[in-house]
Design a protein that fits this description.
This protein has a seven-stranded antiparallel beta sheet with strand order 5-10-11-1-2-3-7, with helices on one face. A two-stranded antiparallel ribbon has the order 4-6. By secondary structure, the chain is mainly beta.
Length: 201
């Protein structure tokens, strides 16, 4: 059963689900390529356990991020893109969470190309890496689709948009609570509970 964290089973099931989503997605036309750039990311929790995947695809208007994960607490959760492609859980498997250490701190701050403030309700916001909250079902599963026209998976595109696959990489971070879309630095959303390093495919 997936809810028992059988890592092989979870990986296979989520890969199949995400592959189906991508195959069903409409294909966009590109002047320079018939094959739009894609990337993927594997989520781990604060204990370093694999809990899900994200698939990213460049379209003519921006980047779509499709997420399938489980083992999360039900309710709304903040989700952001962070500047560094690094996800150190700091906890070992089976260890209790420390109140003095923040998991995934090495992912750095939010992607923020325009030097803005956090949150879409902040007059000076939002960050490039800010997204709307995602909802986790009662059984702990997350099925979400995000979109941004301020980022690219391509190596070109100018400095006005975020380059997800740059030298430092990028990470997707899920927090324990919802984003209030206003309070720096992460919308009073609590500690990070899951992190995924984005890798080109």
């Amino acid at each position: 059963m997936l809810e028992r964290y059988n890592r092989t089973g979870i990986r296979l099931g989520l890969c199949v689900a995400l592959a189906s989503l991508l195959l069903a997605a409409p294909q966009s036309s590109y002047a320079d390529s018939n094959s739009p750039p894609r990337a993927s990311a594997q989520f781990i929790n604060a204990n370093g356990q694999y809990i899900g995947m994200a698939m990213l695809e460049e379209t003519a208007s921006g980047v779509i991020i499709r997420i399938e994960a489980q083992g999360l607490t039900s309710g709304d959760h903040a989700i952001h893109l962070h500047e560094k492609g690094s996800c150190s859980p700091v906890l070992g498997v089976g260890m209790e969470r420390s109140t003095t250490v923040t998991p995934f701190k090495d992912a750095g701050p939010h992607v923020n190309n325009d030097a803005t403030l956090h949150g879409k309700l902040n007059p000076g916001g939002p960050h490039t890496g800010d997204f709307d909250n995602v909802h986790v079902a009662a059984d702990g599963t997350l099925h979400a689709q995000l979109f941004s026209d301020d980022m690219t998976l391509r190596s070109s595109g100018g400095e006005s948009i975020a380059h997800i696959l740059d030298r430092d990489g990028t990470a997707i971070v899920i927090h324990e609570g919802p984003d209030d879309y206003r309070t720096p630095p992460a919308g009073a959303s609590g500690s990070p509970v899951a992190c995924a390093v984005i890798k080109g495919s």
